């Protein structure tokens, strides 16, 4: 996979001597003509659909390189397969740092996976930017001083919005939660607890699943038996689709919220059955290219042109490619802000000093902001509802802070 997804591989031997020795040590992964960055992606394994994020980011930097790179340097993004297994993420990240000597790790996918590599990266003084996770823990500067969340709303914030919305509709609502048994799922549980407080234990019935499980049918049957009238699916695409389908099959029709990592029509709503998903709620922070509202939007048009030229085999209905475009554009802005000083210290300084950055594929009104005390680039979302054919947004932008 390395050879398949590595772009702009350059011969650095002839330029390494260009740097004074002290400067070379300070600016790891950087030569006069290249900036080397790394990531791990699940190109195989149980969530290989998320590999589209890496493919989209590779394609984006191919476009940037064709336009001259950043500051005259080509971006060499080395994207390695970790099969969505944290031990493999650690192994591949060590390879990126110790063998490839990348300047930073960018957008590696997975909450458990980014957790597994964080202390190692800190020990090596390697930035961990725009992690491929919405877990709020990565905003804890004491634990993760060199990390920023990805260009997505935090899972915990998302869950808070779901709880507030459900309680506004029914103050006595009882909740059922299906969550992945890891930090990803637990972040949604934490968000519900933030809102429900002392009422959590009496108002919530939970069930978990493992990423290797073949099905979650029994969990859905159990949750229905609890009498809950609200269902929160803190699940990745395969299990979200199974849950929506099973609830429909057993004629359970609670107010249903699905994680915004699992809203893809082709990989979730269609496998679940379009009719089964009618009325399901979620949140959005990016423009959906399939939404007629964006038909003439310049940002969406530019994204479609990018896809046609640089990712022609990519599914234009898969919003992972939208997220890839946003994440890569955010990193581009950070690297441009670094100027000619691509030391670890300056990379982190610029990553934590983003001011009102507008990305053309974020929803209008959402801007990226970070500071030394705020490592959450995006904290706003808008509710949306599935109609049976598409997602329709409604209401104003909301923050889960």
TrEMBL record:
What is the originating organism of this protein?
A: Rhodopseudomonas palustris
Q: Which family does it belong to?
A: Belongs to the leucine-binding protein family.
The record, for Gene3D superfamilies, names: 3.40.50.2300
- Which terms are listed as keywords in the entry? Signal
Q: Which named protein is this? A: Branched-chain amino acid ABC transporter substrate-binding protein
Q: Which residues form the Leucine-binding protein domain?
A: 34-387
Q: Say yes or no: keyword Signal present.
A: yes
UniProt KW Heme keyword:
no
Q: Where is the signal peptide?
A: 1-24
| Xref: SUPFAM superfamilies | Periplasmic binding protein-like I
């Amino acid at each position: 996979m390395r050879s398949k997804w590595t772009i702009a591989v350059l011969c650095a031997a002839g330029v390494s001597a260009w740097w004074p020795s002290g400067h070379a040590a300070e600016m790891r992964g950087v030569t006069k003509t290249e900036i080397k960055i790394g990531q791990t992606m699940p190109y195989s394994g149980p969530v290989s659909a998320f590999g589209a994020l890496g493919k989209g980011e590779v394609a984006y930097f191919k476009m940037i390189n064709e336009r001259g790179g950043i500051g005259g340097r080509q971006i060499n993004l080395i994207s390695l397969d970790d099969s969505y297994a944290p031990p493999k993420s650690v192994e591949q990240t060590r390879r990126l740092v110790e063998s490839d000597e990348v300047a930073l790790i960018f957008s590696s996918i997975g909450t458990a996976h980014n957790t597994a590599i964080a202390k190692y990266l800190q020990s090596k003084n390697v930035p961990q930017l725009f992690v491929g996770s919405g877990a709020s823990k990565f905003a804890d500067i004491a634990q993760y001083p060199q990390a920023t969340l990805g260009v997505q709303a935090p899972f915990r914030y998302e869950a808070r919005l779901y709880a507030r919305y459900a309680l506004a509709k029914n103050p006595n609502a009882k909740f059922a939660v299906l969550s992945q048994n890891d930090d990803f799922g637990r972040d949604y549980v934490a968000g519900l607890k933030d809102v429900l407080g002392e009422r959590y234990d009496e108002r919530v019935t939970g069930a978990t699943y493992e990423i290797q499980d073949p099905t979650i049918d029994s969990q859905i049957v159990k949750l229905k038996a609890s009498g809950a009238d609200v269902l929160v699916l803190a699940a990745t695409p395969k299990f979200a689709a199974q849950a929506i389908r099973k609830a429909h099959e057993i004629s359970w029709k609670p107010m249903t919220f699905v994680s915004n990592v699992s809203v893809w029509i082709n990989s979730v709503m269609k496998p679940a059955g379009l009719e089964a998903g009618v009325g399901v709620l979620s949140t959005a922070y990016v423009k959906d290219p399939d939404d007629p509202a964006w038909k003439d939007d310049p940002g969406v048009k530019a994204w479609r042109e990018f896809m046609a030229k640089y990712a022609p085999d990519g599914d234009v209905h898969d919003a992972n490619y939208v997220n890839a475009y946003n994440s890569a554009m955010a990193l581009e802005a950070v690297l441009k802000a670094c100027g000619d000083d691509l030391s670890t210290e300056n990379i982190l300084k610029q990553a934590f000093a983003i001011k009102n950055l507008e990305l053309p594929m974020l929803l209008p009104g959402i801007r990226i902001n970070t500071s030394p005390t705020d490592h959450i680039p995006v904290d706003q979302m808008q509710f949306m509802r599935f109609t049976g054919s598409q997602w329709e947004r409604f209401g104003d932008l909301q923050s889960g802070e």
